[in-house]
Amino acid sequence: MPSYKYGNERYSEAVLSAQNTFCAPFCPVKAMNMSIQIPASGGAWSGTLTLQKSYNYFKYLNNPGQGFDGPTVAAASATWQDTTMSVASGTVVESTNIIESEQYTYYRLGFKTGNYTSGSVYVRLGSTNFWY
Predict the structure, then answer these.
(1) What does each C-alpha distance from 115 to 16, 53, 61, 63, 124 come to in angstroms?
(2) Residues 6+ apart with CB under 8 A from 90
(3) Which of 89, 112, 121, 86 is nearest to 16 (CA)?
(4) Looking at the predicted structure, is the pLDDT value of residue 23 above 60?
(5) Which of 9, 13, 83, 130, CA to CA, is 20 to 30 A from 123?
(6) 8 Å CB contact between 107 and 32
(7) Alpha carbons 5 and 27: distance in angstroms, whole number
(8) Which domain holds residue 24?
């Protein structure tokens, strides 16, 4: 799913149910909020979600001739680093101001290869502040 903007809020959300799947890369503005929930369809999820960051996703997304071919190629070309935040099986989280981000740092939340076991989980990263 793509990232969205609604009024003063920007966010990326997805329902994940496989390994190597993440919400769309998201660039928070100053502070970031995170939500992890059981989707409306119900059921428990099992695995470990990892929050990753990239300092060069923006370069691939916005610079033709340097790998630009839209968000899919940008996400594949970017270098993703694990943050120190991970969430274990079945956890429901509502967190605010989890990260004071540098400008143009992108984040994504999801299951790395080998970290998904079963079920579905709804994840959402959001921000209501602006750099500009």
Answers:
(1) 12, 17, 27, 33, 18
(2) 44, 45, 46
(3) 121
(4) yes
(5) 130
(6) yes
(7) 11
(8) 3-127
Q: Is the dihedral of CA 82, 83, 87, 88 positive or negative?
A: positive
pLDDT bucket at 101, cuts 50 / 70 / 90: low
How far apart, in whole angstroms, are the C-alpha atoms of residue 81 and residue 107? 9
C-beta separation of 49 from 116 below 8 A = no
Residue 112, in any domain of the structure: yes
Closest CA to 109 of 68, 56, 54, 30: 54
Cβ atoms of 110 and 51 within 8 Å: the answer is: no
Number of domains comprising the chain: 1
CATH of residue 23's domain is 2.60.120
Instruction: Indicate the DSSP class of residue 66.
Output: T
**Overall size of the chain counted in residues:** 132
Residue-wise pLDDT tens digits, 79-99: 889 987 778 777 777 765 666
Which 3 state secondary structure label does DSSP give 42? Answer: coil
